[in-house]
Amino acid sequence: MSVRVVELSQADEYDRFVSGHPKGHILQTREWGEVKRSMGWVPLPVALYENGRIRGAILVLKRRLPIPGMNKSIFYAPRGPVADIDDYDLLDRLFKGVRDLARAQGAIFLKIDPDIESSNEAFRDYLISRGFRKTTTAEGFEGVQPTYVFRLDITPDEEQLLEQMASKTRYNIRLAQRKGVVVRQASDKQDLAEFYRILQETAERDRFLIRDYSYFEVIWEQLVERGRARLFMAEYQGRYIAGTLAFILGDKAWYIYGASSNEHRNVMPNYLLQWTMIKWARENGCTLYDFRGVSGDLSQDNPLYGLYRFKKGFAATFTEFIGEWDQVYSPLFYWLWTQVLPVYYKAVRWVIRWRKRLNHD
């Protein structure tokens, strides 16, 4: 067996392996690597070969640390690896290959947040036995995947799927249809611009930050145009009032972004959008639909409880993943990353707030 960064001539084989593997994930594709490249990461698709065939894969994203005069970086493999998680010998070889690559690239640790449920005690024990450390997201680290999600088995027929939903969810889907809401699949970047306009409106209303429009342009070019994603827009009285973005790979689909206008929220476009995406996923051979993240705090006084209730209404299953794990290659620099940098980032935020207050006064 050998582990190496995939050459361009073997890229198609890597794509087929990731899309066809039971642990395949959209965030382990080369296309996602290109999306992250636009944000300053360097994608390194790594594969374990045996007799000329890929047996395991892991898309490693590399980011250089701003340490003058030193070639130091971090490795992150979102929802990786793509491999048989019960074959520990194979995993050992794959992770050893990543360690060798880290030595050459100056990486101080590898972070993973695998698509594996928290109930898998055997895999948790495996990670611990190989020196992985359970951790949480450090200050300044972006893009780590949610620990808690809702997932829906979409193998039943449409009538069964509707029947198992909460009655209020079914009612709102049919209400949107009766009111004349029409959901369309976006066909060009003009629709993308409309989606972003509504997303800005949503972010201002709900007080969260969004990425620049250029980020969504890259997603369009790398994923939508290559059949790895689809943008859905809800139209009412000749005007777009909501939109959603979904990713798709193999037999899985993921709801990634949603936006809704302040106007006409009473016609429930978000419910019809989700139902349309579920049907689209089924038509494309998917068996699993992932509603993505929710809070782990399920109390009704949690500000995010409404999101939990919305997703749960589709009869999806609340799922907890195994979380974030770091394999440390350089203990000293890892200590700096986890202990010193958080203090630095907090100080920077304090200075920014202080300056704003001075300017305001």
Question: How would you describe this protein?
Answer:
The protein has 361 residues and is of the alpha+beta class. It has 2 domains: 2-144 and 322-360, Gcn5-related N-acetyltransferase (GNAT) (Aminopeptidase, 3-Layer(aba) Sandwich), CATH 3.40.630; 155-286, Gcn5-related N-acetyltransferase (GNAT) (Aminopeptidase, 3-Layer(aba) Sandwich). Helices cover 41% and strands 26% of the residues. It is built from 11 helices and 14 strands. It has a 7-stranded mixed sheet, with helices on both faces. Strands 8-9-10-11-12-7-13 form a 7-stranded mixed sheet, sandwiched between helices. Helix 2 (30-37) runs antiparallel to helix 8. The longest helix has 30 residues, at 331-360. The N and C termini lie far apart (65 Å). The mean pLDDT is 92.
